[in-house]
Description:
The chain is an alpha+beta fold.
Amino acid sequence: xxxxxxxxxxxxxxxxxxxxxxxxxxxxxxxxxxxxxxxxxxxxxxxxxxxxxxxxxxxxxxxxxxxxxxxxxxxxxxxxxxxxxxxxxxxxxxxxxxxxxxxxxxxxxxxxxxxxxxxxxxxxxxxxxxxxxxxxxxxxxxxxxxxxxxxxxxxxxxxxxxxxxxxxxxxxxxxxxxxxxxxxxxxxxxxxxxxxxxxxxxxxxxxxxxxxxxxxxxxxxxxxxxxxxxxxxxxxxxxxxxxxxxxxxxxxxxxxxxxxxxxxxxxxxxxxxxxxxxxxxxxxxxxxxxxxxxxxxxxxxxxxxxxxxxxxxxxxxxxxxxxxxxxxxxxxxxxxxxxxxxxxxxxxxxxxxxxxxxxxxxxxxxxxxxxxxxxxxxxxxxxxxxxxxxxxxxxxxxxxxxxxxxxxxxxxxxxxxxxxxxxxxxxxxxxxxxxxxxxxxxxxxxxxxxxxxxxxxxxxxxxxxxxxxxxxxxxxxxxxxxxxxxxxxxxxxxxxxxxxxxxxxxxxxxxxxxxxxxxxxxxxxxxxxxxxxxxxxxxxxxxxxxxxxxxxxxxxxxxxxxxxxxxxxxxxxxxxxxxxxxxxxxxxxxxxxxxxxxxxxxxxxxxxxxxxxxxxxxxxxxxxxxxxxxxxxxxxxxxxxxxxxxxxxxxxxxxxxxxxxxxxxxxxxxxxxxxxxxxxxxxxxxxxxxxxxxxxxxxxxxxxxxxxxxxxxxxxxxxxxxxxxxxxxxxxxxxxxxxxxxxxxxxxxxxxxxxxxxxxxxxxxxxxxxxxxxxxxxxxxxxxxxxxxxxxxxxxxxxxxxxxxxxxxxxxxxxxxxxxxxxxxxxxxxxxxxxxxxxxxxxxxxxxxxxxxxxxxxxxxxxxxxxxxxxxxxxxxxxxxxxxxxxxxxxxxxxxxxxxxxxxxxxxxxxxxxxxxxxxxxxxxxxxxxxxxxxxxxxxxxxxxxxxxxxxxxxxxxxxxxxxxxxxxxxxxxxxxxxxxxxxxxxxxxxxxxxxxxxxxxxxxxxxxxxxxxxxxxxxxxxxxxxxxxxxxxxxxxxxxxxxxxxxxxxxxxxxxxxxxxxxxxxxxxxxxxxxxxxxxxxxxxxxxxxxxxxxxxxxxxxxxxxxxxxxxxxxxxxxxxxxxxxxxxxxxxxxxxxxxxxxxxxxxxxxxxxxxxxxxxxxxxxxxxxxxxxxxxxxxxxxxxxxxxxxxxxx
Length: 1196
């Protein structure tokens, strides 16, 4: 059959081509999915191949391809398991490789070679049925189109003006096989493509707009939309491929034939722009409705003119005003600055498709989203911008603290920064700690999708951009700031070990691990801590530093937020006390003694060689053993020789037949030369050195300076020889080994060797040349080569190792007796770099400083450079204090009082200081009040926990049929009671501290306003102490009952800490486990003859008791309780009951119950409120997850 000159349309549907294409496409997708999982670390490799759930989820998307996700996965699972087992048996398998390297490559290779083959057999079987069904549909549709094409060719030859034209047209259309009015003449086409879309929706996912197109009133619109879609996208549709493209290309030609036939369909059924012109407008209800509703519109044309697909045929535009046609009526959407017209519509549809919303082509859905302000694209852009700001803020905050304690980091992210809000937004399982730390781009996309869904699909949902702004603001106001440095004595500059550093705002201190918080200094005086700080609030801080009863609070300027790392040296003036403290610490130090003559602490030594005595080494760091005068060491330092022994030794050492002047040599008559004595061998320089020439660590060394030198023939050179013993003490032995200058007298390179106490060293003397290998002769003079500089001895050294200046920081300090000075030696090298060279210099005068009061000088030397610092040591370290000889403490002098830092100041100064500080602290009043209210809530929560566990324990103790020593429930209750008690103590200690701080601020003008909102007036110090006092007595009662039963408290606690199975809720068990009645389960849990009752009553000793429990049939709900003015009281156990006892002052309160988890259905709970032992309120509610119910009650 010829279609308007285009040839015969053949049915070229080839089943083999179809099957091969299906197999190829599914295999590629499956393999790609597995490799993507491996690359992205989706679980472990073993998870992927050993867990059937992964296979089922993966294959579910291919159900429309003929793959059954419920039955098929077993085949693939078995194949994958077999592959993985083989991999594990491979000798190259590395179980630690996880998802990287060799293991990943092996899995990918096996997937490509074997898993793909497993799919081929399934596809081969399933594709036959798909082919059979699809071929029938194709043939039906193709035949229908060919018949229409023939008819249109015929109609094109008719006279439109003929009186019988309309009747002939209708008869012809009916001949095509259509029934009913001509306006419905594509009804059969509707059915055909509906079947295709329903059965093969996944394969032709881009054809999702077919239904909406075929519902178009204008038949020309339906045909045009349908065939234009096919021509554009048919070639990309999975499986159908060219088959569908072929089908739709025929359709395009059909449309062209219709237009060549004189535009009959368009003119008779009304297609095109909406306007108030044209002879056919009155023929369509759609156009008439538009004209009546929007009479001022000149011409609104469909968006399909530029986009050509889907619902765009039913959206019209004029001057960026949009008009939507759905449900047989028109809906206007005026242009605004926030809307982008067609761009917004396109973005909405793409987003709906991406999130899997089946209404992505539903005009009513698109319209409801489009009309909201701001426009969709703009709102999404704002979300992305703010989420990206949060991502950057989190990453910036964590870049220096990621190594700190994970639990503290998690608290910082989820509580302080409130990423908990994002966790609640996405669902608890979507944002864990590890993902929060990385804050990947996928998380931003999830946030974007969820916020958009909340805004457009939840009734009454608010704009959540303010929540994102709040998180951004918290990131800006909770910047982790690092403080570190050393605590030293201001007198001696020695580091102070064991000093206590108190951050200025304890509530802002972050982290608990030693690697990120060190508030007690180590042996080097080091401290460190992080604080989360608001740059707008904190410009200056004072750090309280205490040591041995002496305190100081130096203040420092901050440069937030540009600088978040600070290193401060904290100096404490210990005064005359420093010497006493130093002496006491020395006596406690093993291997050290106090040198009373020099007032220093030195290393002790035991002298076992006869005629030796202990003497202080030159550096004054310890004792060494030396010969008592007039005795002297023998050559190998093993014996102290008396004068008589020295004379004999000298006589014996003189050769009779020749003179061997070199050390450790003797005349060899056989060779007539001076040879090395036994145990010595000549080295490369011809020097006799011990056979084991390499000096082990800790043994003595000898150094010569200069080690190399150049002189003229007429010159001589002098050397300085330094001996360093095994203790590290160094002293000058030049006069003992070479009292005379060295005079070579002839050109060449000469070696001068020195030996002292069995240790040798050499120097090179170049006569007439450059002795230094790092020097070169220029114009007759030796100069250092490039990159080298002369040191103080003239030797050429690398520029970075040659120092031009040194200094000691601080140059002056004051410390107390018993303290050590802390200082740093700073060196400037030839490159201009400033370096810490404390460990490279020779120090003198530093040992023993702080033992007694006085003024001392510390000296540092290196490369001929020296620097000095002064250390003042006094008893108290405060000019306005004096030592109390009775108590041994430093007391303020008459007329002076200690301020908060322990410094003695006059009465007037103290008054002014306190008034000034009080005004500054008033700024913190609101924060302190909020913190105090939060702590009170914690106390009440821990109190409630403790009472519940205590009561459970006593119930078990009173059960005479039970052996308490073996009663695991009693052990668990006891262990949990101990834990709750410790938490309670900690919170009360924190509460006491905050109470004192608030009391100190009671004179602030805003005190009543700030504290009144939290109803803090009744929570005084006595109330806090009473709570812990009451629990101390009840804890003692529990311990007494344990002893009465012959048990050990520690053993019971140990049993209790391990008794709970991992799959049980400890809180539910603590409330009685299965021995506690649960409503709705139809069981008599406690065996007393009644079912499902929940016996609740007021807790004795408290004026308010609130009981909340899950009263639904499915025990899977979790609720939380918050009391206005009293704080958060914690959550109920999943599916269980919790009693909240509390002591509240008279007043009006609101109890807020939030549904945290509803088990996927609805949260069903019952609440009972008791006041002064009487039930004043009780109700049961069904509430959705995330919703809070509030109930008012009063306390008289």
